[in-house]
UniProtKB/TrEMBL annotation:
Keywords: Hydrolase. Belongs to the metallo-beta-lactamase superfamily. Class-B beta-lactamase family. This is MBL fold metallo-hydrolase. Signal peptide: none annotated. SUPFAM superfamilies: Metallo-hydrolase/oxidoreductase.
Length: 299
């Protein structure tokens, strides 16, 4: 039976049907499943598939952080252009992974500059060359090492690099006036993270990055996270970063204990839980387990 006729026949008419009509209307108005949420001072986020995109709209131009995929980036571009007629001045990448930079190509001829950490550019080139996808890339034309300073309208944007974490090229971008920090994939909210050892990731150093990030911000800082298990939790506070640092520490401790007991990597990564971890769930637990075991055993 069709949902609609089921609703009519069971007499759940008002509430449920109204809800159904509302979601049907939403699908009609927005055939793609993306969401935009403004945070403050004209800084907002865009979510569809891949890493959370951050953006700033100002009369002097638009700045975008990360680009998701080639087929989702045009949705973001259309939305920011609807809201701001000034040109897209900057596209910043938090790191090279495809769910953050595959959409760069959609900014070709649109964004005036593409910026990333110097290691992110090296990684992006390496991966693209291996995958034979060089023609699908738009590479950064500006890179930085320790820090970066940009100004757009009234907003000062600072880029930081704290050393290896999720990769060896994770940049953090801070909208100083709005007090919002995009931390990219240094934060997986309640979701097991990717740990890209092939691109220089290091979990112990990652914990240190998260500690520095908490100190950089204050009580009022809004952090934008690369990924979140639950929709709507793509932003949060220093408290969330602390929880994730604790999680990483527990994964490393677990690997160390089991490694010392002589447990093989093959057996270790079959674990389906991590002692003391309750808030991180979903798929992909083998990823941090594998990385932690490799990190511990190669010491
Ligand atoms: Zn990602
Ligand atoms: Zn990533």
């Amino acid at each position: 039976m069709h949902r609609r006729s089921f609703l009519y026949h069971t007499g759940l008419f008002t509430g449920a049907s109204l809800l159904f009509q509302k979601s049907a209307l939403a699908t009609m108005l927005n055939p793609f499943d993306y969401k935009i949420r403004m945070l403050r001072n004209n800084v907002g986020i865009f979510t569809e598939r891949g890493g959370t995109i951050g953006f700033l709209l100002s009369p002097e131009g638009t700045l975008v952080i990360d680009a998701q995929f080639e087929d989702t980036a045009p949705h973001l571009i259309a939305e920011v252009q609807k809201r701001n007629t000034a040109p897209i001045k900057f596209l910043l990448n938090t790191h090279h992974h495809g769910d953050h930079t595959s959409g760069n190509i959609a900014f070709k001829g649109i964004a005036e500059h593409v910026v990333a950490h110097q290691n992110s550019l090296i990684n992006q080139k390496n991966v693209a060359e291996k995958a034979n996808k060089v023609d699908k890339q738009l590479y950064p034309d500006q890179t930085f090492d320790k820090d970066l300073k940009l100004k757009l309208g009234k907003e000062k944007i600072t880029g930081y690099y704290f050393g290896p974490g999720h990769t060896n090229g994770d940049a953090i971008y801070h909208f100083e006036d709005a007090n919002i920090m995009h931390v990219g994939d240094l934060m997986f909210n309640k979701r097991h993270p990717f740990v890209d050892r092939s691109a220089g990731a290091n979990m112990r150093s990652w914990i240190g990055d998260l500690e520095r990030l908490q100190k950089k911000g204050g009580k009022d800082t809004i952090y934008i996270f690369g990924h979140s298990l639950n929709e709507g939790e793509e932003t949060g506070s220093a408290e969330d970063l602390k929880k994730f640092a604790d999680y990483l520490d527990k994964v490393l401790q677990f690997a160390e204990t089991e490694f010392k007991k002589g447990v093989s990597k093959e057996d270790f990564i079959k674990n389906t839980s991590i002692p003391g971890v309750t808030e991180w769930s979903g798929q992909g637990i083998e990823r941090p387990l594998t990385a932690a075991y490799e990190e511990i055993s190669s010491k």
